[in-house]
Amino acid sequence: xxxxxxxxxxxxxxxxxxxxxxxxxxxxxxxxxxxxxxxxxxxxxxxxxxxxxxxxxxxxxxxxxxxxxxxxxxxxxxxxxxxxxxxxxxxxxxxxxxxxxxxxxxxxxxxxxxxxxxxxxxxxxxxxxxxxxxxxxxxxxxxxxxxxxxxxxxxxxxxxxxxxxxxxxxxxxxxxxxxxxxxxxxxxxxxxxxxxxxxxxxxxxxxxxxxxxxxxx
Length: 217
Hints:
One of its GO terms (molecular function) is molybdenum cofactor guanylyltransferase activity. The protein is an alpha/beta fold. The protein has a single domain, classed as Spore Coat Polysaccharide Biosynthesis Protein SpsA, Chain A (Alpha-Beta Complex), CATH 3.90.550. Helix content is 39%, strand content 18%. It is built from eight helices and nine strands. It has helices at 32-43, 52-62, 78-88, 106-113, 139-151, 158-162, 176-179, 194-213, and strands at residues 7-13, 26-27, 30-31, 46-50, 69-71, 93-97, 122-126, 134-138, 168-172. Strands 5-4-1-6-8-7-9 form a seven-stranded mixed β-sheet, with helices on both faces. Strands 2-3 form a two-stranded antiparallel ribbon. Residues 206-217 have low confidence and may be disordered.
C-alpha cells in the first residue's frame, strides 16, 4: 500500500477537428486551456502533453523552458497522452484533465484524490458513463495496460476503465460529498464545438454579471 502517494497532473494539448486551435481560443479573458491549467498548478506539479503543432505556442504563452512539457510523439489522442505521461513522470498517480474544461474545481479534485487507497488502478466518476477525461490513473497501472491497448489499436481512453472496472474506485456523480463543492457539476463541462464555446461564454458572462450585482462594495 502507498501511504503517501505522489500525484502529478497532466493536460493533453492536441489538435481539434471541430474548433481550430481550441486550446488557444479565448475564454474568461485568457486562453481556454489556462483556465484549468492554473487551477491544477495550485494543487499538483502539472505537465502538458503537447502535439508538435501546438508545443511552440504553449512554450511562448507559459514562457517555459520545456521542463513541464511532454512532446506527444504518438498523436493518437488522450490515451496516448496518458501513456506518455506515465512513461515520463516519476509519480504514483496521474490526475488527468482535458484542456477544454474551464470550470475545474479544487474541492472536487482534492475529494477525488482522497479516494486513492491500496494501490488501486485509479479513481473515476460516473454519470450514465464513466468520465475518463477527469480522472485519476495509477502510473504503474497505465504502463501495464495502455501499452497493450495501443499495440492492439485500441485508442479510446475509456477502454482502460471499461476493461478494468474492478481496479477503479468509482464515484457516482450524485455523491453528496462531491456535490458540496459543485452542485451543478459544472466542472465536467467541456467545450467541444463552436456552438458550445459561444453558449458557455454567454452563460459565464451572465453568471459573472449576476454575481457582481449581488455584491455590496
